[in-house]
Specification:
Elements lengths: L1 H4 L14 H7 L5 E5 L3 H13 L3 E5 L2 H9 L7 E5 L1 E2 L2 E2 H10 L8 E5 L6 H7 L4 E4 L4 H11 L8 E5 L5 H10 L3 E6 L4 E6 L2 E7 L2 E2 L1 H10 L3 E6 L10 E2 H21 L7 E3 L1 H7 L8 H4 L8 H7 L4 H14 L2 E3 H12 L8 E2 L23 E4 L10 E4 L37
Parallel strand pairs: 1-2, 1-3, 3-6, 6-7
Antiparallel strand pairs: 4-5, 8-13, 9-10, 9-13, 10-11, 11-12, 11-14, 15-16, 17-19, 18-19
Helix pairs in contact: 3-7, 7-8, 8-10, 10-14
């Protein structure tokens, strides 16, 4: 198929043969794209990128050939990509003809322009184009928009996708290449970012707002999300254009993804080996304390990166370096080492001993102070009825832990009758 895509269609070829190969492949459920462009090299490059992404691609060289292909009976394309400048017309007029045909009106149309003109955006909106991209246009951006819009009806307000299929960084760059406005919202409510006419204007993620929230959303946001197109009228908290995104934010994100692919898992819990830290502290940067102090054995690496003031890729690289030096160690290993070292001196739980036979005779309060037993203490209370002694077993220096309280009737205190005002139960205050 790649070989066929590298060979552009020429108008001399009969229109009936253009769909022959694709009809058989359409049964596999792959989305079909009609690519209209007279530039052979640009068309072949776009077609190769779309084919690699899993699309069926039909290439034509002009507006008339495209209309002939669309007039045939059979399955319609899921998306139309058209260059603005065509040898037998222009992309705006072609898009208007598609919208005027009731059979084709629902097919999304994206216009591509090699030369940007101020009036192009107004023309694209006037003829009902779904988006308008001007040079420089990256193949990846066209593929991202194709994945987002292919198979949907034109004019839909919401498009749904998943980060496993279309990462947030890819869809953000593609949306900034166009002229639409709207918002990208994570389905779990973790965050969102708003865009307007090629600019990111606001973002919220895990309690943060602004450019930091946008960067962290690209790093940590995952799962299903929705792209809601429509006017974004609020002022916003910052602005970021596509050039800054591509030159500054995305390179850091690529470093972050590379570390995540082969480095420390984000779910790992690490703690500090302070003895090792003292050995290598003189060789570390002064700002390393901002990273070290966040590793307390309870936070995950992901939580640490979310709290660290440094960029995510920088903090991730610093953590990986500290781990390689032995300054950071898995928290579970330290816990096991502490248990092994202190296990012999840590007392066990106090457990109640079996109670005595119920027919034991009553006894007065007797405490043998001359011969105390450090590991076993038997307390008998003088009561009118049978007593229920409780035996506690444990270390002599350890305070007793009472698991079950003995149930005893009230007894007199200071000679006062139990029914009188001076009666106090044995468990009073417990």
């Amino acid at each position: 198929m790649a070989a066929a895509l590298s060979k552009p269609f020429t108008p001399a070829e009969p229109a009936s043969s253009m769909w022959t190969g694709t009809r058989r492949r359409a049964s596999r459920g792959r989305s079909r794209v009609l690519l209209v462009d007279s530039d052979v090299n640009a068309q072949a490059l776009l077609a190769a990128g779309l084919a690699e992404a899993g699309f069926e691609v039909l290439m034509v060289g002009g507006a008339h050939a495209a209309l002939e292909a669309l007039a045939q009976d059979g399955q319609l394309p899921h998306l139309i990509l058209s260059e603005v400048e065509l040898p037998d017309g222009d992309g705006f007029s072609f898009c208007g003809q598609v919208r005027a045909d009731a059979r084709l009106a629902h097919v999304p149309v994206v216009l591509l322009a090699r030369r940007q003109e101020d009036f192009h955006k107004d023309l694209a909106g006037g003829v009902g184009a779904d988006d308008y991209l001007s040079q420089p246009v990256l193949v990846q951006d066209v593929v991202a928009l194709a994945r987002l819009k292919a198979g949907r009806r034109t004019g839909e307000a919401t498009y749904e996708s998943h980060t496993a299929r279309l990462p947030l960084a890819h869809v953000a760059r593609a949306l900034l290449a166009g002229v639409r406005s709207g918002r990208v919202v994570l389905s779990e409510g973790e965050g969102w970012f708003a865009f307007r006419h090629g600019l990111v204007v606001d973002a919220v993620f895990h309690g943060e707002r602004g450019s930091l929230a946008f960067r962290r959303m690209l790093c940590f946001g995952s799962g299903a999300y929705a792209v809601a197109l429509g006017p974004e009228l609020h002022k916003g908290s910052f602005t970021m254009d596509r050039a800054y995104l591509c030159e500054t934010v995305l390179p850091g994100l690529e470093r972050f993804d590379a570390l995540r692919a082969r480095g420390l898992p984000l779910a790992s819990r690490l703690t500090v080996d302070f003895a090792r830290l003292a050995e290598v502290l003189s060789t570390l940067p002064e700002d390393v304390g901002e990273v070290v102090r966040l590793f307390d054995g309870r936070r995950t690496l992901r939580a640490m990166l979310m709290e660290c003031p440094f960029p995510e890729a920088v903090a991730y690289e610093a953590s990986t370096r500290l781990f390689a030096l032995g300054v950071l160690v898995p928290a579970c290993l330290v816990e096991e080492r502490e248990r092994a070292r202190c296990g012999a001196t840590v007392p066990g739980f106090f457990e109640p001993a079996p109670s005595v036979e119920p027919e034991a005779s009553p006894a007065a309060v007797a405490v043998d102070a001359a011969e105390p037993d450090a590991s076993e203490a038997s307390l008998d209370f003088a009561v009118d009825g049978p007593s229920e002694p409780l035996t506690l077993v444990g270390g002599g220096a350890q305070p007793p832990v009472i698991l079950t309280f003995p149930k005893k009737p009230a007894h007199t205190v200071g000679g006062t009758d139990a029914a009188g005002s001076g009666a106090v139960p044995d468990d009073a205050g417990m």
